[in-house]
Amino acid sequence: MIKRIKIAAALSGLMMSQAVMAAAPETSHWSYTGDTGPAYWADIDDDFSMCGLGRNQSPVDIDGAIDAELPPLQLDYATTGTRVFNNGHTVQVASPEGNTLTLDGDLFILQQMHFHAPSEHTVDGRRFPLEAHLVHSDKDGNLAVVTVLFEQGEENAALRSLADSLPDTASERADVTDTVNFTQMLPAQHDYYRLNGSLTTPPCSEGVRWVIMQSTQDISSDQVESFSAAIGDANNRPLQPLNARVPLK
């Protein structure tokens, strides 16, 4: 029960597109730099202890994945997002009702999509300029995250209106000039890696099911600059050890 309460609290934090971030005590402030950066997260608040003690933490380098003949992804993204929010750590788009992922026989509802620049996960040691996390939860508060990696290339038409609308001030919201189509965020090929891990931000709760798309999406250098400028400091947690985990594909 305690684990479910903590995961539910973490999900509440992830869904801050629905409310302006409340002022938190100074002891709970975390960041990506200095003495409130990732190396110190576990010391900032007792609720963040898993950031230092967890054995199944994220992100990781996807290396040596085993071919497990994973079933096709069951994604049904029927609605689009229209609002983007800067919560001081990332920029995120809330998902209306109607977007789902079925994984391991469980139904997960898409809550929001947010971004990390540069990428948090790497593949065979390669880092990418941008990573999108599509965060889903089931009826019990368990989390599943679909991850899309972007590599520099042509302009990404699906990101165009979002990149042009990004708020660059914490707690600022903005209307997207055109709707954000979550389906178009995904690569055409839906082959993926599977790994159990954690939230990549405090409280670093474990038990998160990660689905990392094998194919990448293009993004232009100008679009990368737009996301980086809105996010501010690089918001990628350092890589965590796999320990006994083996990625599947």
Automatic annotation (TrEMBL):
Signal sequence, renumbered to the chain: 1-22
The reaction(s) this protein catalyses: hydrogencarbonate + H(+) = CO2 + H2O
EC primary class: lyase
CC cofactor: Zn(2+)
Molecular function as annotated in GO: carbonate dehydratase activity; zinc ion binding
Acyltransferase as UniProt keyword: no
Domain of life where this protein originates: Bacteria
E.C. no: 4.2.1.1
Transmembrane feature ranges: none
Alpha-carbonic anhydrase domain segment(s): 28-249
Keywords on record: Lyase, Metal-binding, Signal, Zinc
Pfam families given in the database record: Carb_anhydrase (PF00194)
InterPro entries reported for this sequence: Alpha_CA_prokaryot-like, CA_dom, CA_dom_sf, Carbonic_anhydrase_a-class, Carbonic_anhydrase_a-class_CS
Keyword Lyase recorded: yes
PROSITE patterns (UniProt xref): ALPHA_CA_1 (PS00162), ALPHA_CA_2 (PS51144)
Biological function: Reversible hydration of carbon dioxide.
Protein family according to the UniProt entry: Belongs to the alpha-carbonic anhydrase family.
Protein's name according to its UniProt entry: Carbonic anhydrase
